[in-house]
Amino acid sequence: MMSHTTEAALLLGLMGLLIGSFLNVVVYRLPKMMELRWAAECAEFQRSDELALPPESAPEPFNLSVPRSRCPHCGHNIRWFENIPVLSYMALRGSCSNCSTRISPRYPAIELLNAGLFAWCGWHWGLGWEAVLWSGFSASVLTLALIDWDTTLLPDDITLPLLWVGLCAASLGLTQTALTDALWGAVGGYLSLWLVYWVFKLVTGKEGMGYGDFKLFAALGAWLGWQALLPMILMASIIGAGVGLAIKAKGQLREGNYVPFGPFLALAGLSAMFAGPAAVASVLGF
C-alpha cells in the first residue's frame, strides 16, 4: 500500500470521477424506483381486495441499469462516448447532440465533487482499505444529500448499508473509530433525532423531520463516533436555519414551507470527516 502520496490521490480521484457519473444515475433513478415499487405494492393490495380487477401487465423494467440513459427532452440514447465524465460535457458544450437542449451543469459538478472527495481520502489515508471505505462513505453521503434536496427522501437502500458498514468497519479496526464509540454513535444519533421528532410533534402536532434523518444521523455516528454527534447536529442546525431563512426571504420555499435537513447533516458529516469533531466544535465556538 502507498502512503499519503500524490499517486494515491490521483488514482482515487480518477475512480471518484467515474463513480460520480454513476451517482448522477442513482440520484435520478433511485427515487423513481421507490415510487414505482410503492405503486406496485398499492396495486397488488387493491387487487387482493377486489378480485374482479383484471391482472395488470408487467411494467417495463426500470432500475439503475435499464433503460439506457437518454435525453429527457428528445429521448436520444446517450452513446458511450457522450457519457465520459466531464470530458463529454465539455465536448458537447453542455448540450444534447441530437436536439441541442442544454444539459444541466450539475452533472459534471457532481462528478468533480465526488472526484475531489475521493482524492482527499487518497491523500489523507493513502491507497488502502481505510481510504476506500471513507471514499464510499463520502459518495454515499453526497448521494443522500442530493436525493433529499430533490425529493425529501433518504432511501433505506443507502442509509442502512451505510450504518452497517460503519459498524462493521469499526469492529474490524478498518477505521480509526473504536467499536464502542461507533455503536453508541449509532444509538445516540438515532435516538436524539427520534426524541426531537416526538417532542416537536407533541407540542405542535406537526412532523418536523422524517425517519430517514434519524437513520442518516445514526450512520454518521457509526462512522465518526458519539463524540461527533453534538458538533455535527449544531453545525447542521445552524447552517440549515441560515439557508432556510435565506430561501424564505427570497420567497422560494417549497409547498409546505420546509427545507430538507438531510443535506445539512451530510455537510456536517463530511466536515467532521475532513477536520475531526473537535475542529468542527471549535469553529462553532465550543
Task: Report on this structure.
- The protein has 10 helices and no strands.
- It is mainly alpha-helical and 286 residues long.
- α4 (129-151) packs antiparallel against α9 (262-275) and α5 (156-171) runs parallel beside α7.
Q: How would you summarize what this structure contains?
A:
The protein has 286 residues and is mainly alpha-helical. It contains 10 helices and no strands.
List keywords for this structure.
286 residues, mainly alpha, 10 helices, globular
What is the end-to-end distance?
38 Å
Describe the global form. globular
Q: Element order, helices and strands? A: HHHHHHHHHH
Percent in helix: 55-70%
Mean pLDDT: 88
Q: What is the structural class?
A: mainly alpha
Number of helices: 10
Number of strands: 0
Largest sheet: none
Low-confidence stretches: none
Strand content: under 5%
Rg, nearest Å: 21 Å
